[in-house]
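Q: Give me the 3D complex with zinc ion.
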Amino acid sequence: MQCPYCTGDSSVTETRVTADGLRRRRMCAVCKRRFTTYEKLGAPGLKVQKRDGSLEPFDGDKLFHALERISAHRDGVRPEDLRRIARDIEATLVDGGRKSVAWSDIVAAALSRLENVDPISAHRLAANYTDESGAVRLDGTSAPQPVQQLGLPLDEE
Ligand SMILES: [Zn+2]
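A: Here is the predicted complex, encoded as structure tokens.
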């Protein structure tokens, strides 16, 4: 990315996940000035593998809304927490450089993060995930992994 001051080349010194996407701190290689850029996450090319084996583009909003339904009527669960969980999962998948990911892996990742925010909602997610008659449609192939094996710290602002 071009430096806004001298149009020299810049390099990324830090990347953080925010509610809206990625915030990157950059430093110009020429004039050494620092600046910050913001990128909305898009997960280009990342596909989700559904139970029937078909692939569909990863949709962070879809994940967010699934979490919203899971946490409906739960006091203390803020939309920004759920948004952050969805973004964090998306960022992790994108950084991992994977071309496709199974729904079950996404659910497991969501479970481990939701556990930190609201264990009741996490249990509800697990129940919905294993019960196909549940209100939330999640296409998975296996039971969720144990939460403690997948616990990743949420990015604190
Ligand atoms: Zn510069």
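A quick observation: The pocket of zinc ion is lined by residues 3, 5-6, 8, 28, 30-31, 33 (CB under 6 Å).
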